[in-house]
Write a structure and sequence with these properties.
The chain has two domains: 35-355, Alpha-Beta Barrel (TIM Barrel), CATH 3.20.20; 359-437, Immunoglobulin-like (Sandwich). The protein has eleven helices and 16 strands. The chain has helices at residues 3-24, 35-47, 67-70, 75-78, 92-101, 129-132, 139-150, 187-203, 226-236, 302-314, 333-349; strands at residues 49-53, 106-112, 153-159, 210-214, 241-244, 257-260, 280-285, 317-323, 357-358, 367-372, 375-380, 387-391, 397-402, 409-413, 416-420, 431-437. Helix 8 links the parallel strand 3 and strand 4. The protein starts with a helix and ends with a strand. The model has no long low-confidence stretch (mean pLDDT 94). Bound molecules: ligand FHN. Ligand FHN binds next to loops.
């Protein structure tokens, strides 16, 4: 064989092999979700609404979860918070009652945020709530047991980014200040540590809903060894849904795609606007802080929060709404009041949200649509429109009513259907029209 051809073949093979190796570390190549995972995805999409909880020792400083970085607090200083963390009013049953009253079906809580502090009893580190605080109890175990009692699914938010662990090295875009860590470290030792804690979360807390990763964006080109981590989780908890807030298209092994502070494909963080075919979720705060921030009074109104939930559902996505608990373990009244109001609206209108999927027409100027069981729900969100034009749905509309059965007059035309909503029946948050199509 011509030596040039021989060398070329070797180079092509080596390049292909290198790509496979690289790609393999960008996810669990060849991952096929098992039946339990597919069922979990269906459940997730039906559930629609969950509570995000950002809770850690940072709440003591009442300036949000990035305080260690933003105030450039050296590790030795930050660790002085630990003896002060004693959330004696933490009541996981109360949290679950609040969640269910709000019409939520799952909780996603920080097991470890970027500060590296574990809110659970870890054996691979003593940098955790059991070993280093006067409270000394595993709040995630307490919450997992309460969720089991109340029928609430529990997901864990886990930060891959770590501002505390010495082997998170080379440091990334945000952990780059030397806050008492050596300018050296073994990256794969850190990944082993991270996998060790994930193994604990997938072993000691019962059947989990999933893992919500965050922080890859701190080192976007690093070898995060995702395939190994994702396989570990799916081997221990096959039904667990893995998602990662890397703001890129999902990698193999991921079971849902999340967006932050924006509807699918429209959030300000996504580098790629691609919306995958995976179950979708968007997350948002009630004020403008994820972790507890005493001074942040920019509370969103109930109308804005309900319409965010409705628009998410209209975009075939779940809504994960955040609270940042206080140092004593309680949730501030402004959050609880809004969650209760959302639950009240959902008790009357929830059939147009739960168990639905995105509607048959794209979002309109007047609102969005959802659909389930042969019904299409028109969510009229604009205050001004009592007469709306509905594009052709492919089948003639047989009937149109409000959820309370009130008839809605409509006229079918070649270009679509004109709907006339009785003005006195408007819902100030979202007027839902149920239409049944000629099958
Ligand atoms: O840096 C985190 C932030 O603290 C928070 O956890 C949000 C929640 O989606 N995610 C990252 C910012 O994109």
């Amino acid at each position: 064989m011509n030596p040039f051809v021989k060398i070329s073949k070797i180079i092509i093979f080596m390049t292909f092999f290198a790509y496979i190796l690289y790609a393999a570390e960008q996810g669990d190549i060849g991952y096929k979700p098992v039946k339990a995972n597919i069922e979990a995805r269906e459940w997730f999409q039906d559930a629609k609404f969950g509570l995000f909880v950002h809770w850690g020792v940072y709440c003591l400083l009442t300036k949000g979860e990035w305080v260690m970085y933003r105030d450039v607090i050296p590790i030795a200083e930050y660790e002085k918070l630990l003896p002060k963390f004693n959330p004696v009013k933490f009541d996981p049953d109360e949290w679950c009652r609040m969640v269910k009253d709000a019409g939520m079906h799952y909780i996603t809580i920080t097991s470890k945020h970027h500060d590296g502090f574990a809110m659970f009893d870890s054996k691979v580190s003593d940098y955790d709530i059991v070993d280093r605080t006067p409270y000394g109890k595993d709040v995630l175990k307490m919450l997992a047991d309460a969720c089991e009692r109340h029928g609430v699914k529990l997901f864990f938010y886990h930060s891959q980014l770590d501002w505390h662990h010495p082997d998170y090295y080379p440091r990334g875009g945000t952990g780059n200040y030397a806050s008492g860590r050596p300018d050296s470290g073994d990256w794969y030792k850190y990944l082993d540590y991270m996998d060790g804690q994930l193994k604990e979360l997938c072993t000691n807390y019962g059947k989990i809903g999933g893992i919500w990763f965050d922080g890859m964006w701190d080192k976007p080109t690093a070898d995060w060894r995702l395939g190994k981590t994702y396989r570990l989780i799916h081997q221990l908890q096959p039904q667990a849904m893995i998602g990662s807030n890397h703001h890129r298209a999902p990698f193999p092994g991921e079971d849902f795609q999340m967006f932050e502070k924006g509807l699918p494909g429209k959030d300000p963080f996504s580098k790629e606007k691609a919306i995958s075919a995976l179950p979708l979720e968007t997350c948002e705060t009630i004020n403008n802080s994820w972790g507890y921030n005493e001074k942040d009074k920019r509370f969103k109104g109930v109308k804005e929060l309900i319409q965010y939930l409705v628009r998410a559902a209209g975009n075939n996505a779940n809504f994960l709404l955040n609270v940042g608990p206080r140092p004593d373990g309680t949730i501030q009244p402004e959050f609880k009041k809004r969650l209760a109001e959302m639950g009240k609206w959902l008790r009357t209108n929830g059939e147009s949200i739960y168990g639905t999927r995105g509607g048959p027409i794209p979002p309109q100027s007047w609102g969005v649509t959802t659909q389930k069981d042969g019904m299409v729900f028109l969510h009229v969100l604009s205050d001004t429109d009592n007469v709306i034009a509905v594009p052709v749905l492919g089948k003639d509309i047989k009937s149109a009513t409000l959820l309370n059965g009130t008839i809605v007059e409509f006229t079918n035309t070649k270009l679509g259907t004109i709907m006339r909503i009785p003005a006195k029946e408007r819902d100030s948050y979202d007027t839902v029209i149920v239409i049944r199509l000629d099958v």
